[in-house]
Amino acid sequence: MNCGKWIIISPIKILFHFTIPDCRNPRWFKWYPFTFVMAIVWLCLLTYLMVWMVTIIGFTFGIPDSVMGITFLAAGSSVPDAMSSVLVVRQGLVDMGVSNTFGSNVFDLLVGLALPWFSKALASGEAVHINSNGLMYDSVLLLAIVGITVVSFHRRKWYLDKNLGIFFLAVYGIFVIFSLLIELNVFGFVNPPMC
């Protein structure tokens, strides 16, 4: 490990070492529930920090929050999923890799969005207002992409190859471009200006 990387990673590793017990060690084996809870606590704190930093950067450069979410936050949250899918596929468990891609997105939508919205609505007694009318268009685009994905898999007789990967990268590129154009009000006024 080079010196620069070590300097950046060491404080984080030391902090994690003292706050998250390593339950693989026989001494801490029975502490696994606490390990799980602390991992979730750190995940929440780091996620909050990441969203806060991306919001500040977007505000500084005059980029709407929705655009920052579609690009930077989506990449930051999806790269670990993609890496885990690649590792699982390399081990020969292709079904698990493909299921992970669908499962993580379904979980993000149905739990990651629904649970905070439900909690906020329950606590305040009011509906949650989303400050982007472009979300409807993005949802329709995502639904269309799910259809394209299933049809593509079916037409290839459920085999994944390089050409299908290139096709999916192109579809993703088209989705990002259209989503950004929608959120930047190119096709009409859907996203109010930033304060």
UniProtKB/TrEMBL annotation:
One Pfam family name is: Na_Ca_ex
Q: Which GO terms describe its molecular function?
A: calcium channel activity; calcium, potassium:sodium antiporter activity; symporter activity
- Biological process per Gene Ontology, one example term: intracellular calcium ion homeostasis
Source organism's superkingdom? Eukaryota
> So which residues are the signal peptide here?
none
Which membrane topology term applies here? Multi-pass membrane protein
Question: One GO CC annotation, please?
Answer: plasma membrane
Q: InterPro entries given for it?
A: K/Na/Ca-exchanger, NaCa_Exmemb, NCX_ion-bd_dom_sf
Q: Which family does it belong to?
A: Belongs to the Ca(2+):cation antiporter (CaCA) (TC 2.A.19) family. SLC24A subfamily.
Name of the protein in its database record: Sodium/calcium exchanger membrane region domain-containing protein
